[in-house]
Fold this sequence. Notes:
Radius of gyration: 68 Å
Protein name: CFA44 protein
Strand content: under 5%
Strand order of the largest sheet: 3-4-5
GO cellular component, one term: cilium
Order of helices and strands: EEEEEHHHEEHHHHHHHHHHHHHHHHHH
Oligomer: single chain
Helix content: 55-70%
Main location: other
Amino acid sequence: MQDGSLRAYPLNDKDLSVDTLKDYWYLNVHDNDYGQIRGICCSHDDGCLITCGGDGNIFTFDIWSEEELPKELKVIIPPPRSGLEKEKGTEDIRDPDAYTIEEQKQKEEYERKMKEAEEKKNKKREELSALRQDFVFLLRKNQELPKHMQLHKEEFEMDRRIFEELDRQRLQRIQLVQKELAWEQEKQLIGLQKLQTQFRDSLEFTLTVHAIQSDHQISTYSLQTISEKYARDKKHGDDKWAVLKEKWTALKESEQEEEIPREAIPVHRVFEDEDEKLETPEVRKPTTRYIESRREKIRRLVEKYDALKAKIMKRRAEWHELYKSKPRDNYGNSKDAEEIKEAQENIGCYRLKTATNYTLTEDDRMNTEKKMMQLATLEDLIHKTKVNMNKEIVSLRDLKISIIDEIKSLVKEVKSIQANLDVSEHLPIPQIPQLHPDEVPEKIIEYNSDVLLKFKEEQEAKEPLEGCPSSRAFRHVFLQTPPVEESDPMAQAGDASAVVTEEAFEMEKAEPTEIELEILKREKIKNLYLQETLIKKINALVINFDAELRLLRHEKLKMDVQMKSADLRCITFCEELLILKKLEIHEDLLEEQICALINEQEDIQSKLKSYFAQMEDRKCEIVMLQEREKALYASFEASLGEDDEFADFLTDIFKKEVECVEKEEVGREADEENENKEHQEKPDLETDEENCGSQDAIFGDFVCPEGCSEDLFLNTIQLRQQRIGIEKALAEEEKVAADLKKEYNALAIKAKELETSLDTTNRELEAFQWEKLHRLNELYVVVPLRLHQVQCLVDGEMPRDFSQTLVFTNQSLQYLQKRIVDLRNEKIMQREIHKKAREQHKELLQDKKEMEAEIQRLEERCNNLMMEKFGRLVDFEAVQAHSVNIPMEQMKVRIMEKEYEHFVELKEWEERIVVLQHQLTKLTRENTSKLHQLNRFCHEKHQLETELESLTGQGGEFQGTQTSDLKETARLQSRLMHLTCDVAFLREEIN
């Protein structure tokens, strides 16, 4: 009642106990928080229950007695069906995680099926095990039989396809497992490679390969990491001096303009598509054939004209190319000139680097970068050479390992063969070579189960505590590591089966027959041959390996000498590098000066070009103004005419210098807005004032004299104004041109000074380069020489002082001696070539004179013939170009085509007229026949009417025959009606 709920208990007067209070009726009617029941009571007739709560609500409930309670409706349960007791009862769902009954049923059904399948599998396994036992029993029985009675393995196979299918399924399962474990395998492999790269690959071992039958051995080089001290980027290895030299030479080169040959305009063919426009019938008429022949003729003319024009253009192009390729009179090849100069300076001697007149080329100049590059290249080359030799030694070691494996297999074969021979027939078996520890130094870091076990014992001795984490980690690794040396179970099984077979064979051994003895004899001979061959093969393998090792050892000894020489060269390079680093500062300073001078020279050259272009523009302007001034003077003289009495006066006025200042311009500059307003308000007045002011300023004291034309006077004044303007403009242009010329000359002088300073700096740099070379030549260089290579004798004895001697290779000396002979022969050959060339030059000059004379003679003859035939000189190229008027010929052909079309059309109309005339004649004849018929009918009508009248007048005579007359009358009337209808019809047709 505290939470606003109401509870009612049904009580029984007979049984009042605590157990009866278990059943109650509960209803939450009032508010749970503020609806505490404050009062509860029954009505006056005990029929209702009234409750009052703290939330202000009052509820009334009806109280029913047991008799008033509604009776419960009970469902009639049908009887159980027959056979229900035999069915298995439904099991309850005991799984608390079951979601639905359907899922539980599906799960039970799946479990039932799996249980049945497992039972079937077990049955099959039992059957297979029984079959396997029977098969093993048969195999044992087969092995117990004599060898010649035993069945082969293939005879036990009922169907080979079964084993093939099993093998295929096994391979598929293996591939599936490999695919499933591929990611894990790759992961573990990458981890192992990282560990090997970090720890094992950084170690370097000295590998020594020993010979098998001798004491020769060969060892690998101990490689060092390549020093990065002298490494450089080869992509940016261009020498700075070479770049500067290119800039300097680029400034001196002059651009040559090449004439662009005129492109020949192709002549388009006129009648290419004419045949497609006109459709020619199968049977062509003479007119059509004539038109086509004319068109074909014009086409041939056009083709001839095109070919002739193409030939002329081709000949012009050939002449143009010929004249273009003709060298100038003062032409000289700069490359040949430089080579000749160099040959003149250096020919006839072998200049030493220590000589004072030794000149360095651009490629021979040495700096720090080049020397560092040489040092890095030499170190790289040494490293690569050593690496290649080490690879060859390692491959020789691998060859030895493979030879040992092969010898082992051969020895095994020899032992198996000797097992079938007598002891007296055995040959000594060569010993199997063994690998020395220094041949496989990498085995030091490899491990097996014995090494791990020993390591474990050491660790346990050092750390006796069981809780040591390293011991636990080692134990985990040790348990997972399989032993390296483990016998093959298949090999053991094979050996066991062989032992069983031998024992069975010995049990069945009996006295051999003659055939068996023959077979045994053959087998013995074969085994002896195989024994001898295999032993020879083993010895050959050993001998060949020792020979390969000795050859490689000889190559390595030669390479050792080369490596020592290379090491000495590296020392020399380092000493030279130290000297170059000391001299690098001064060299860089000189190169910077040269670079600055070249850049400044480039700027000055660009300015000179711009000033020269401006000067040319000013010259053009000055020439234009001078021409205008000349034209002005000519127009003034033309305006004066001849015999003008005021010519001197007007000339003085024209040549007088007057300064023209317009007042309106001053006013316009002072107040532009006021002037604009005045222009808008009084334009006419302003014009008059301007004219008056200008006239006052221009005329001055001069007034047009009497008798002089006012128009001529005003024209002179205007021409004087124009002359003054032209002279002012000309003076300004000349002033600007003079200023530009002064600046141009000043820049030219500065450019010459820069070129002089640049040459001076270059000479200083060359001198510095020679000094640097002299410093480098002062270094002592170790040169390995043998006694037979030294040939330095003075008076048959070896001198004590070798300071003035020169170390020169024999090959270079022989080359120089041979070169002397070659140069003599080349000199003789060049003289002969020069002599032939001079003779050929004379012949060509003579031929040229003769050809010029022939050309002149032919030209004169051609001109004479033209004068005789045409009366004047004719341009044959123009005549050939215009020999055929193609548009006119084209219009002629079109006119003929139109005429032919009109003729065909006219003929068609004439044929139509003839047909219509025939139709008219036919109709006229029909009309005439109709008229004749009409005329005949009219005559018959007239006759009938006459007969009728005559019969009507003679009526008394025919009274007895009235019936026959009536019939005749009716007949005639009907015939008359028919004739009338026919006449009307014919008239309609005629009309």
